[in-house]
Amino acid sequence: MGKPTGFKEYNRELPEKVAPALRVKNYNEFESLYSDEKLNEQSARCMNCGIPFCHSGCPLGNIIPEFNDAVYRKNWEEAYKLLSSTNNFPEFTGRICPAPCESACVLGINKPPVAIEEIEKHIIEIAYEKNLVKPTAPLIKTGKKVAVVGAGPAGLAAAAQLIKAGHAVTVYERDDKPGGLLRYGIPDFKLEKWVVERRVKVMEEDGVVFKCNVEVGKDIAADEILRSNDAVILAGGSTIPRNLNIPGRELKGIHFAMDFLKQQNKRVSNIKFKGEDISATGKDVVVIGGGDTGSDCVGTSNRQGAKSIKQFEVMVQPPAQRTNAMPWPTYPMLLKTTSSHEEGCERYWGSIPKSFWAMAMVTCAH
Ligand code: SF4
């Protein structure tokens, strides 16, 4: 525990963000980093609990109190070692994880929780800056070859673990670059693509071979992959969207969220795409689906210059605070106002779409 009185002395603070009116003018990330002093204060808020519930809240089992303590002592090597022992890609989770660890944080019982996700992001960014992120492949190899099909988050994590175990790893990706949803689903304003490329470069230095523009079963036979490897991991993700078969579905201007988001991510990266141009510029946009993907469609539509944006969610509006039905340390289903919502949109709750008539442009993210 860095500072026994830290949780009493300091309030939770998050790094500054660019104002909504300014950040919608581009697709850049808009959250700054803490000053050294603020990072120190925020890590000092951790109470090093006897039973650290944050641990159980984190699906990765991140060793949170220990890395908070290392951050407080500015021991970056130790902080990075602890964080990377359970988390292959803290630079992704530190930006886009919904942070269930924070919902489980003991401090959250009567104060705002420790800013764990931000601290995680700072550890990895400082680790990169200090050149602590190094290849991890052992010198002694197993002699086994493994093929990973799909270079999205799951495929990348599998490849990172396999190379660490000493296997030879080849990742097959049908798209033009590795990353999957990280590259073509999540907008740049939440995760700039140099962050993905930086990690892929580390993995390549580690010995992972990426073969892009290769669709297994089409460009290369599945048999050949099986024959030339000792094991194959299928990490193709789910790319089949959920359709909404209601009257008017055949109308023009109705798109699946991933088609819309992928195109914009390609535009930002100056990568050509096939098919019809999908644009929200000057349109009245309706987003069906109130989750994170829907929110990404809202943020993208605002940046493209939509005339108006309405977002419909099937669930009723959740409460802003915990109720008796969702006590600490469970993950609470609370009203979430994302950065994209801050940028402007009308939100509707408890709405089940019955037809597409009279909607100008629709993205289905339900
Ligand atoms: S539950 Fe919160 S205060 Fe307790 S150890 Fe974890 S991060 Fe620190």
Describe the structure.
- The two termini are 43 Å apart.
- With 366 residues, this protein is α/β, with parallel strands linked by helices.
- Helix content is 36%, strand content 10%.
- It folds into 3 domains: 124 residues, Fumarate Reductase Iron-sulfur Protein, Chain B, domain 2; 90 residues, NAD(P)-binding Rossmann-like Domain (Rossmann fold, 3-Layer(aba) Sandwich), CATH 3.40.50.720; 111 residues, FAD/NAD(P)-binding domain (3-Layer(bba) Sandwich).
- β6, α15 and β7 form a beta-alpha-beta unit.
- The strands form 2 sheets. The protein has a 5-stranded parallel sheet with strand order 5-9-6-7-8. Strands 3-2-1-4 form a 4-stranded parallel sheet, with helices on one face.
- The radius of gyration is 22 Å and the shape is globular.
- The chain is built from 16 helices and 9 strands.
- The structure holds iron/sulfur cluster.
- The site of iron/sulfur cluster has 15 residues, from α4 and α5.
- Strand and helix order: HHHHHHHHHEHEHHEHEEHEHEHEE
CATH class of the largest domain: Mainly Alpha
Ligand types: iron/sulfur cluster
Q: Count of DSSP helices?
A: 16
Shape descriptor? globular
Structural class: alpha/beta
Overview features:
366 residues; alpha/beta; Fumarate Reductase Iron-sulfur Protein, Chain B, domain 2; Rossmann fold; FAD/NAD(P)-binding domain; 3 domains; 5-stranded parallel beta sheet; 4-stranded parallel beta sheet; 16 helices; 9 strands; globular; binds iron/sulfur cluster
